[in-house]
Structure prediction request, 315 residues.
Amino acid sequence: MQSKKTNIPFSLTSESLVSDLSEEQLISLLVEGWRKSKREVIASIAEDCAVIQAEKKELYYLFKMDATVENVHFDPSSPPEWIGRKALARALSDIASMGGEPLYALVGLGVNRTEKVERIKQLYKGLTDLARAIGMDLIGGETTKSNQLFIVVTVWGKTDGYKPILRSGAEDGDSLFVTGVLGGSYDSGHHLLFIPRIQEGQWLAKGQWAKAMMDLSDGLATDLPRMAKASNIGFEIDYEAIPVRKNYGLHNALTDGEDYELLFSVAKEKEIDLIKNWPFEVPIKKIGTFSKNGKMEFQDGYRGFDHFQKSRGDY
Ligand SMILES: Nc1ncnc2c1ncn2[C@@H]1O[C@H](COP(=O)(O)OP(=O)(O)OP(=O)(O)O)[C@@H](O)[C@H]1O
Ligand SMILES: Cc1ncc(C[n+]2csc(CCOP(=O)(O)O)c2C)c(N)n1
Ligand SMILES: [Mg+2]
Prediction:
């Protein structure tokens, strides 16, 4: 795998804390200097999923792990079925973001000894109901004692007969689209009950509509610059075009996170056909353009979610 530049703005000392870094800086630091040893690893760290090319032509395997932690990703009072559902759906959103088809899941569970068995049973029901609905198989996992309830889901998916869509394919002049509406995910409960855009992602990849694609988990303000940097191209946003959830505002749409919608680039000349042929219920909206004259960052004050920066309910 390719190591990313660390971009650490100061020298670390033995006293430095994780909270001195952003999530991205910590990951960069941990994998600095790591080089992939296998040719079949097509994409890895910094993409939504790792991509492994199988020996058969145009067969790619996708892998993604996501953690769902009490008081970080859900409140103790959240319905347990919804917690389990969310834990799987988070990883499915990353598979969707490459146009993949989910196949198998491994589930890690951390539970306190004082936890009610019924709560964990309900949590598992939410998770397995979604897996069944999607037609994927639960093939194993791990269970451990933990002070804080957590679920770690690893999903294995594939693209068979077509290439997965990376974050790095956007080019000058491409149109930038988003599915659904953005903002207010936590307060509205969307963060528990969102529908991962699996069919939409596959359609966009199979039909060669999307050139670059990712899912929005940390907020457009953080995630779009990631796509721009991966593609090495700037962007220009039409702020008024951003689809905002009812009762929320532009700031929510840019910074709240957990939208779990698809962000993708399309060649300008395909834009009209895309809109005409879009076969799904969820709407798509053009929100800007990739441009070599544009910036790769949003203006100051728009910043998405970061696990190590101070936010709601920090401890
Ligand atoms: N501890 C780690 N070691 C190695 N790679 C990591 C580690 N944590 C995250 N990564 C990789 O870093 C990238 C960013 O991780 P992250 O989980 O934020 O993915 P994302 O797709 O940006 O966000 P989300 O999972 O919320 O959609 C991914 O490619 C992920 O596989
Ligand atoms: C109790 C509670 N507090 C805050 C939030 C909001 N939240 C948590 S993680 C995240 C970004 C994506 O996470 P990751 O980067 O891990 O994929 C956001 C916006 C929540 N859902 N529950
Ligand atoms: Mg992602």
